[in-house]
Design brief:
With 682 residues, this protein is an alpha+beta fold. It contains 16 helices and 37 strands. Helix 6 packs across helix 7. Bound molecules: guanosine-5'-triphosphate (GTP) and magnesium ion. Magnesium ion binds next to helix 1.
Length: 682
């Protein structure tokens, strides 16, 4: 009996702390691990300890009431949400944490959308009820407005802040009072007299909502005016899985209040693997898209890879169908290679225990796979399938990086190669012109942590330079002209001659090629070389070195030589023609525009908006939140490369934001010269 949940929320809401309480309650740890003391079992990475936040998704497999619960703890900070998205692929449902003080933030909305993409059922846990300014009802109404859902409390808090001492169970209609020793050995008591009306109100709401999930239940409720506890639970389960409503719990992770209740609720209301949304995969034999059903032959996807300099590669996989025994040989369908699964481990943090087999819904770890990378499918050779990979958010930022010592270049490349295996949000390429290493990721903090890992795990230091903005070139007019490449001195000559017409396409259309040659002026077999010549020349741009995009090229005439013509000669002629006609077609520079979501307390709204205007930003919307305002804006990427520290400075660390790529737009002409000059100097 299995449940499979991911904990998701904005950074710092208490996901990892809640998992630590769960590890303690299920007997896996003797003391509750604390983020602030650096004693967390889940956030064990040295960088997670020093930064006091989760960078990697990690798994805790725990046993509770004879169920095996696979809990995935995910990062919540904006720079690491690609990791969360990858991990959600392995989850069957999600527990969304909110803060009783600040409610939900920009990142919570982002991860909520990810859960929507995977159609996951959800429950909400309003955490930090013990902290100053904790207000359950405020957070509840903010959740309702933000997510436009029907949140349905299963428990309401007794007291708040220092005097938070327990919760009222709205199904049983009993008070659960907790001791102060964090043991979570609560006692059942009568509901305090001054809370009876409130509890009645929420109880009625809960029972009504539960009854509405089923005709027989409604009838019974209308007749008898009450349902049994079992019937209420059945209704809640039905409504949660069908997403009619979202159950809400509340508690305090660090005081170990309500963590056990959450485990009970996960078992009671979250879907079993066979009731989870079905995953799509490609059947390699029939070449069809199929839904993978749990009872089919074994299949699993690797959703997370850790590369330890000592222990080697650890692959975390989620089983979607069938079961697996240790010692089995599997197929990696993406790579077409066999992998031997010699040992299977269940995880909590970095701790693991060996098991003989795993079944549907389970998450486990296998080490030292030879070919397998993150998002590869492992299956049987008899039924090879490949799961659709989760898409990663657009990378937001690129820095060029330079080893502190010239001798370290090989070590840097080797270390980065390992980190790339761990992190699907990271990519690296060498700049063709400057031969600098460009590291692209989700934000400045993301790149910084990668460099910290290089230093800590692979012992090499690198420096990062100001990020580069990925500008593009495009054209605004039609133009046409000739490119002729002719060399006839000694030996075999070279001859290619093409006439091209270039015309603009709409934004993000990319590149189109049209063959309009008549009468064999350019022989068929040379036409692909012409297209290739144009494509390659466009990658290098014409005026700035940035790729030229969103255009169409038509080849409409040319000539050839029966002996001297070759593919190479036509490719060169095409590249010459392209550069000439593009230059005549009014080249402009495009800049990336970002969607920026900023959350700030009321008193900073004016200065944040004023600042946005000075960055050529457009305010799209300003919406009140319970804790301030949500400002949505579109801003050129070049203006917000170092926004994180600047917003921190502007708001005394009270603001938060997320940023993602929106679209390319024309760079104002007065800024063009500067971009061209900088790219020449790079
Ligand atoms: N008072 C109080 N503090 C809490 C509670 N839960 C977590 N915290 C504190 O909040 C901070 C962040 O907690 P984490 O558990 O790291 O939060 P997280 O959601 O895992 O954060 P990310 O991994 O960065 O997304 C730590 O300082 C915790 O001690 C709670 O219930 N009450
Ligand atoms: Mg965490």
């Amino acid at each position: 009996m299995i449940r499979n949940v991911a904990f998701i929320s904005h950074g710092g809401a208490g996901k990892t702390s809640l998992v630590e309480a769960i590890l303690y309650n299920t007997g896996l740890t003797k003391r509750i691990g604390e983020i602030d003391a650096g004693s967390s079992v889940m956030d064990y990475d040295p960088i997670e300890i020093s930064r006091k936040l989760s960078i990697n998704a990690k798994v805790a497999t725990v046993e509770w009431n004879k169920y095996l619960l696979n809990i995935i703890d995910t990062p919540g900070y904006a720079n690491f949400l690609h990791e969360t998205k990858a991990a959600l692929f392995a989850a069957g449902s999600a527990i969304v944490l909110a803060s009783a003080i600040t409610g939900v933030k920009a990142e919570t909305q982002r991860v909520w959308q990810y859960a929507d993409e995977y159609s996951l059922s959800r429950m909400i846990f309003i955490n930090k009820m013990d902290k100053e300014r904790a207000d359950f009802y405020n957070a509840l109404s903010q959740i309702e407005r933000t997510f436009k859902i029907n949140p349905l409390p299963l428990y309401i808090p007794i007291g708040a802040e220092d005097s938070f001492k327990g919760v009222i169970d709205l199904v049983k209609m009993k008070a659960l009072i907790y001791p102060t020793d964090k043991s979570a050995n609560y006692t059942f008591q009568d509901i305090p007299a001054d809370m009876l009306d409130l509890a009645e109100k929420y109880h009625t709401k809960l029972v009504e909502a539960a009854s509405e999930t089923d005709d027989a239940l409604i009838e019974k409720y209308l007749d008898a005016g009450e349902l049994t506890e079992e019937e209420v639970r059945r209704g809640i389960r039905e409504g949660t899985i069908t997403k009619k409503f979202v159950p809400v719990l509340c508690g305090s992770a660090t005081n170990n209040i309500a963590a056990k209740l959450l485990l009970d609720a996960i078992i009671d209301y979250m879907p079993a693997p066979e009731h989870e949304p079905l995953r799509l995969a490609h059947d390699m034999k029939t070449n069809e898209e199929i839904f993978v059903r749990t009872q089919e032959a074994f299949s699993a996807m690797v959703f997370k890879t850790f590369v330890d300099p000592f222990a080697g590669k650890l692959s975390l996989f989620r089983v979607f169908s069938g079961s697996l025994k240790a010692g089995t040989e599997l197929l990696n369908a993406n790579k077409g290679e066999k992998e031997n699964i010699s040992q299977i481990n269940l995880m909590y943090g970095k701790m693991s225990t060996k098991v003989d087999s795993v079944g549907v819904g389970q998450i486990a770890m296998v080490s030292k796979l030879k070919y397998t990378e993150t998002f590869d499918t492992l299956c049987t050779a008899a039924k090879p399938i490949i799961f659709d990979k989760p898409t990663m958010p657009e990378q937001v930022i690129s820095f060029s990086i330079v080893p502190k010592s010239k001798d370290d270049e090989d070590k840097v490349s080797a270390g980065l190669a390992k980190l790339l295996e761990e992190d699907p949000g990271l990519s690296i390429k060498r700049d063709a012109e400057t031969s600098e290493l460009l590291l692209s990721g989700m934000g400045q903090m993301h790149i910084e942590t990668v460099l910290e890992q290089l230093e800590k795990k692979f012992n090499v230091g690198v420096e990062m330079k100001v990020p580069r903005v990925p500008y593009r070139e495009t054209i605004r007019m039609k133009a046409s002209g000739q490119g002729k490449y002719k060399k006839q001195s000694g030996g075999r000559g070279q001859y290619g001659d093409v006439w091209l017409e270039i015309s603009p396409l709409e934004r993000s259309a990319g590149f189109e090629f049209e063959d309009r040659v008549v009468g064999g002026a350019v022989p068929r077999n040379y036409i692909p070389a012409v297209e290739k010549g144009v494509r390659e020349a466009a990658m290098e741009g014409v005026i700035s070195g940035y790729p030229l995009v969103d255009f169409k090229v038509a080849l409409f005439d040319g000539s050839y030589h029966s002996v001297d013509s070759s593919e190479m000669a036509f490719k060169i002629a095409a590249s010459m023609a392209f550069k000439k006609v593009a230059a005549d077609a009014k080249i402009v520079i495009l800049e990336p525009i970002m969607n920026l979501d900023v959350y700030v307390p009321e008193e900073y709204v004016g200065s944040v908006i004023g600042d946005m205007n000075s960055r050529r930003g457009r305010i799209v919307n300003v919406e009140p939140q319970s804790t301030g305002q949500h400002i949505r804006a579109q801003v050129p990427m070049g203006e917000v490369l170092t926004y994180a520290p600047e917003l921190r400075g502007m708001t005394g660390s009270h603001g938060s934001f997320t940023m993602e790529f929106a679209q390319y737009e024309e760079l104002p002409s007065h800024l063009m010269d500067k971009v061209i000059a900088e790219s020449k100097g790079k």
